[in-house]
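User: hey, got a sec? need Glycosidase folded
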Amino acid sequence: MLFEDRIFYHIYPLGLCGAPERNDSAMPFQEGADPFFAVGEEWVEHIKELGCNAVYIGPLFESTSHGYDTRDYRQVDRRLGNNAGFRQWVDACHEREIKVVVDGVFNHTGREFPAFKNLQEQKWDSWGKDWYCQVNFDGTSPLGDPFWYESWRGYPELPRLNVWNPQVTDELMSVVCFWIENFDIDGIRLDCADVLDFEFMRRLRKETERLKPDFWLMGEVIHGDYSRWVAPGMLHSVTNYELHKGIYSAHNSHNYFEMAHTLRRLFGEYGLCRDAVLYNFVDNHDVDRIIDKLAVPEDLFPVYMFLFTIQGIPSIYYGSEFGIHGQKVNGSDAPLRPKLVLSEMEETDLTRWIRTLAQIRSSRKELIYGEYVELLLTNRQYVYGRRFEGDACIVALNNDDSEASVDINLPISGSSICDLMSGQVLPAESGRVHMVLQGHEGRIYQVK
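Assistant: Yep! Here you go:
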């Protein structure tokens, strides 16, 4: 399946680059200047060195504030640079065999988008009145407009587009074509996919496959049956928020049954989306950093081992590989999206752990494509295998403070298992092996 062998690095560029909170319209576009993109190529090299081979970066469209209030779908936000600079950045990624996926913000626009400005100016006579949902001139908006309109989750700064209007849909398809043809992007992450029209997504799949057969579509979906979105003719993947919650909750409550149950519910014999390849993460630009969600910071090591060895596509949110902190304050996402200067970041044991996990995952097909086999499950210890074409790896996790001894049956025939991090070999007798796990530890073995 597309992108199944990818490891993502996720960048929120306005935060990473320390862009101004508001986009001053007086700031000139830089199209006539030299190519420039504020996320420097040193980050591309870092992504490669960390072991990632895909980057999800966004939002990028010209916007007014946080990036999801679009002004212009065909311009890179002037706070980040210009179109020519971003094209060079994509080329730098492709030179290192890194796929590039950008945000597609198609459920709503900002109030400075041309269609909304036309609605404000021309009202009943505007062409823009048919671009938005439930425009009604018998009321007023929360921001004082002499009309009412539907917005995303009640935020009046984000008027909802009417994707049932063929003019709107045609324009959005044209926008996607523009980004593929001008920037050679490899995929789009659909913002708010859980409220987008399904017919819109089906058309998007057809259009993008025509333009670029291996183009990848991933949707932001928080709740619901993921198989409604990840299906033939629809999206290739969605954000796995269900597993995200299970990961930190299971560690904090010493209850590995929660993680295992989530896997069964999603991918088991009667799972909701048994054959889907979901986008897995432990933090992102909308939720607190994983280090601040864990009761015991040492659990970062088994957490990331689980992320890299389970079904789906793992993703690292920029800065979390260095163990940085970030929690929402009074509802603000700003602490989750800090400015970082790569040369000032110090490598830690966690950075090296993640790099090693990426290398191991990329080198072992069973960790990418393999069948999941549960081998042992208690509240505080969890051992599972991944097997593929006669090979198998075993992952062992311990969220206890104390050392734990476990005995498991091998998922395939073998005489021993080899620790892929330390090189230690453990013998197997009659297909059974004994292992000792230190507190808050994760180990990964290859069956020999």
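Quick note: The chain has two domains: 8-367, 370-447. Let me know if you need anything else on Glycosidase.
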